[in-house]
Description:
about 70% helix, PPR_rpt
Amino acid sequence: RNINPDVITFNALIDGFVKEGKLLEAKELYGEMIQMSVAPDIFTYTSLINGLCIEGRVDEAKEMFHLMESKGCFPDVVAYTSLINGYCKSQKVEDGMKIFYEMSRKGLLGNTVTYTTLIQGFCQVGKHKVAQEVFSQMVSRGVPPNIRTYNVLLHGLCLNGRLDKALMIFEDMEKREMSMS
């Protein structure tokens, strides 16, 4: 009896390799998948985009992102956030923000992880005011900040000598009844 792997099988293996830091093997499996005429899905592409971003290969991740779109596989908030994270980790936060705006134009709303990623990116490049604006936008759009969001923003403000602002954010966090765990 001949059993051939399907998209779910390939996705599990590709994601496993990405999580183990074995992007080369993940990309080889992707190639094998294509050769076997197994169509990649959003999960396949997002895993590869994430793996490329982890390795700092954001330009390749962007190419994979465009390839995904060209194949009729439209990115979701997780795929966009993976790419945004890649730009932020590469200190190209403005490019990450462009991706965020592109996502918004396509009708997708950022989630808590998306906003926290941008806030952290702006804090890391010393743009605490922009990080605060992103935080304000997050709250005004009804996206709930979590403890990580607050910790990232508080840390960024403290590193930039903005203890006054950090205290205000801390008080806001207390109002929302979050603990500093």
